[in-house]
Amino acid sequence: MKPTLFLLAAGMGSRYGGLKQLDTLGPQGQSIMDYSIYDAIKAGFGKIVWVIRRDFEQQFREQILAKYEGHVPCELCFQALDALPEGFTVPEGREKPWGTNHAVLMGKDVIKEPFAVLNCDDFYDRDAFMVLGKFLSELPEGSTGRYAMVGFSVSNTLSDSGTVSRGICATNEETHMLTDVVERTKIERHNGEVQYLDENDQWVTIPDNTPCSMNFWGFTPDYFQHSEEYFKVFLSDPKNQANLKSEFFIPLMVDTLIKQGKATCEVLPTTSKWFGVTYPEDRPGTVEKLAALHAAGQYPDQMF
Description:
Layout: E1 4-8, H1 32-42, E2 47-52, H2 57-68, E3 74-78, H3 100-105, E4 115-119, E5 122-123, H4 126-137, E6 146-153, E7 164-171, E8 178-190, E9 193-197, E10 203-206, E11 211-219, H5 222-236, H6 238-242, H7 250-259, E12 264-268, E13 275-276, H8 283-295
Parallel strand pairs: 1-2, 1-4, 2-3, 6-12
Antiparallel strand pairs: 4-11, 5-13, 6-11, 7-8, 7-11, 8-9, 9-10
């Protein structure tokens, strides 16, 4: 069975200042997700699913979905603040979405096969899709708890315009299995060194080649059930109830399952180099890099 590509497209783009998922960055008006979907189809993915906000469904269908439907099966699902397990309600005053793993949960009714999860506003490059597509398509039928992550060196994922959020990882050097991953929401280079702000508001220095998650994960469908169960634990935690900005991140879920012995996660090396548009200042460089890829013949002018 061909794996599914699951694109996280429900973010507000608060730091970027708009719906960067729909920004036209390629030389023929392509969005970054056009490149992800083009590369995914080349890598053997058989279906595309997006999670979006309901309030821009019409714009998304007209501007985005229409051009893919003739090339690959497509489906939409929706992330909403009140999409919570039975017995839970949105805390008074909460406006922030529940995070990336809550967005993933929205796909549980439409994804029944191994699937890849990724941000739709990050450029991952073709090799990343090839290595993850190969991993997922070669899983024995009925596999559970066998996950993967495309690993990037943290120094190759920074923005010159401000801090970024990444899952900082530790791995077993012999097995290439993930042993620890923590979402760090403020990472940048200080005085030539890569540093992140920890939970005690202290800057911690890490090596440039530290593997990090760019939210490009591969899962078997049992991941949805695990996530549903743990989301209740997350919501029940008084700390998360009190913090109106607490988020249910993918790295939090993966780290929990690894440490409970319920899953393994292989870190897949890639020759791909990431770039993206975290801030408006990142846009000119991204436009230039995409134009260079077209000029080099990696992508045709008419992709769909």
